[in-house]
Amino acid sequence: MTFELKRPQIKKPLAKLPFPLRAPSTPLSVEPLPADENTGANYDTEWARSPGARAFRGALTTAVMKPAMTMLASPTVKGLDRLDSLDGPAIFAANHHSHLDTPLLITTIPEPWRSELVVGGAADYFFSSRAKGAVAALTLAAFPVERDSTGRKTVDLAAEMLDEGWSILIYPEGGRSPDGWGQPFRRGAAYLSKRCDVPVVPIHVEGTGRILRKGRKLPNPSTSKITFGAPVKANEGERTASLSERLEASVAELADEATTDWWTARQRAHAGTTPPMHGPNAGAWRRVWALDQDRRNKPKRTWPRL
Fold first, then answer.
1. With contact defined as beta carbons under 8 Å apart, do 171 and 94 qualify?
2. 103-160 pLDDT tens trace
3. Cα separation of 272 and 76, whole Å?
4. How confident is the model over 37-90, as pLDDT tens digits?
5. Is 67 helix (H, G, I), strand (E, B) or coil?
6. Could you give the CA distance from residue 78 to residue 224 in angstroms, rounded to a whole number?
7. 27 has which bridge partners?
């Protein structure tokens, strides 16, 4: 019996475009230039806050975004009277279930904050490439936010914009809900509020998960409800963790108000029995069952529809 040795096959890389259609190679004797890092958290969005970009975004919001949201989401807005005492820049903090949340809130947040509003967008998603970053920055006034950790670069940029008079729309959950229930709030919004001495406006958005939930590509038109809460600000000596907990509780109370009514929600808030947004601590099937109680025409619902 004889054995034949075969040379292992090495997969060749895909053919590259010839120079000058591609970047030139660097000789081994020359130190290569640093890689272009103008993506992710390093994407520069200052140009998107220029007068020209703001004018384009205002026209886009009025002519395209608002009619589209009216057609897809039929929004009902409540609680705008709670903003009567709000003056100057603010942090708008909302729960997050769908990519529709941002355009819906951009068209709902009233003036004067709407025209000077920037949106925190996931650096690893919206700014993964220059093209995606340019679209997000121009159309939504988005700036990159690191979801895995609160980087100094992200925090310093947000604080700088607040100091310049910009308001910020941020999602303290850090991303869209994976199952329809709310997620624990992170402390970024509370930290910025304390650092820059600006109030946080809690917002609850209901219905966008039915229209375009995570994982779906095509929307299913339905109704939505946006409820604004009273601005929240740190008390004297209050820690960031405590302020974040109060902010999450405020959004939960708005969720209860959107599901029931103002009086019932206030009674439960006073008694400390407001249902948490993250739902029952149970298996996946139980969470789905609790979330869909209202669809089965139950006479009494324990958990709010989120």
1. yes
2. 999 999 999 999 999 999 988 889 988 999 999 999 999 999 887 655 678 889 999 9
3. 27
4. 677 878 899 999 999 999 999 999 999 999 999 999 999 999 999 999 999 999
5. helix
6. 11
7. none
What superfamily would CATH give domain 40-238?
A: Glycerol-3-phosphate (1)-acyltransferase (3.40.1130.10)
Residue 256 near residue 304, CB atoms below 8 Å: yes
Going by DSSP bridges, is the β-strand pair 224-228/200-206 parallel, antiparallel, or unpaired?
antiparallel
Tokens of 260: 């029931």
- In this predicted model, what pLDDT tens digit does every residue of 204-263 receive, in sequence order? 999 998 898 887 888 899 999 999 999 999 999 999 999 999 999 999 999 999 988 999
List Cβ neighbours of 244 (8 Å cut-off, separation of 6 or more).
172, 185, 186, 187, 189, 190
Helices (H), 18-175: 51-60, 66-73, 101-106, 123-126, 130-140, 152-163
Q: What is the pTM of this model?
A: 0.80
Cβ–Cβ under 8 Å, residues 188 and 155: yes
Smallest Cα–Cα separation from 248: which of 256, 209, 154? 256
Rounded Cα distance, 156 and 184, in Å: 23
Domain boundaries, the chain: 40-238
Q: What are phi and psi of 258, to 5 degrees?
A: -70, -30
User: What are the backbone dihedrals phi and psi of residue 164, each rounded to the nearest 5 degrees, phi first?
Assistant: -85, -5
